[in-house]
Design brief:
Layout (H helix, E strand, L loop, with lengths): L11 E5 L2 E5 L1 H10 L8 H28 L4 E6 L2 E6 L6 H29 L8 H21 L7 H13 L4 H29 L16 H22 L16
Parallel strand pairs: 2-3
Antiparallel strand pairs: 1-2, 3-4
Helix pairs in contact: 2-3, 2-4, 3-4, 3-5, 5-6, 6-7
Length: about 260
């Protein structure tokens, strides 16, 4: 899932803050599928949803790209399917630096979420009194950048949290770290998938299975169940690959203060 997709004649290409950005046509399809339920409100709301996802994922990948550049590697951004990639021109040495690069994406989204929330508190621009489209724009900006960012930090491959988990496990159990992080990935992804299925069953049966959870706690859906089920399976496949001995011991490329 981390491979860069091939170029197509229908890619949208532009430059943003000195970084080359490419939008694969499957990005539009994936985003529309994710927001298909917004059509119940009208076509305008689907357009708003697509715009929110476009801005939010671009900001997320810009966070990675800026961190790559800070540590000496240029990069370009690709948006496709249900997410995006910041593709570096060279690798980053130093475990701590790679962890910071992984965390930079969610951090950028959290900063955007904070700016949106603070501006709403200051001006009340996202209030329904200013129109439902504006209110949904505000809610979706907060939702995508906050909750998607939190999910992205889960220790699941190939999410950013999974990359951090791998680096931490390799730092503590050299040679066994990748296998350990894959086991963590499988367990976490399977738990989220099961929880999401239970949330979907609750929604359809209208039984309050999780009424003990606070309102702000994220609820799963059929989409998150399928997504994390797939991620659990992919991590299992990788675990089988590494368990057969098809892995190499990562070089000790820690920067001096990490040794």
């Amino acid at each position: 899932m981390l491979a860069e997709p091939d170029r197509t004649p229908y890619d949208v290409n532009f430059w943003l803050l000195g970084f080359r950005v490419r939008i694969h046509p499957l990005f539009w399809l994936g985003t529309v599928l994710l927001g298909a339920s917004t059509l119940d409100l009208g076509l305008l709301y689907l357009v708003i949803w697509v715009g929110v996802v476009l801005v939010s994922i671009t900001v997320h990948e810009l966070g990675h790209a800026v961190a790559f550049r800070r540590f000496g590697s240029d990069s370009h951004i690709v948006l496709w399917m249900f997410g995006g990639l910041a593709v570096p021109s060279s690798g980053i040495s130093g475990r701590g630096r790679r962890i910071l690069v992984s965390l930079a994406g969610p951090l950028a989204g959290f900063i955007l979420c904070g700016v949106v929330y603070a501006s709403h508190l200051a001006t009340d621009w996202g209030s329904p009194r200013n129109g439902l489209p504006t209110a949904y724009l505000y809610l979706w900006l907060v939702f995508v950048n906050l909750y998607w960012g939190i999910f992205n930090l889960l220790p699941v491959y190939p999410l950013d949290g999974g990359q951090v988990s791998r680096e931490l496990c390799e730092g503590k159990w050299r040679g066994r770290g990748v296998v350990t992080s894959l086991k963590i990935s499988i367990g976490t992804a399977a738990t989220v998938a099961i929880y999401s299925l239970a949330c979907e069953m609750e929604r359809r049966s209208r039984n309050n299975i999780f009424e003990f959870l606070p309102d702000w706690f994220p609820r799963g859906s059929l989409y998150t169940a399928l997504l994390f089920g797939l991620l659990a399976y992919q991590s299992y496949q990788l675990l089988q690959f590494h368990s057969r001995g098809y892995y190499y011991e990562a070089p000790d490329d820690r920067v001096p203060w990490e040794k």
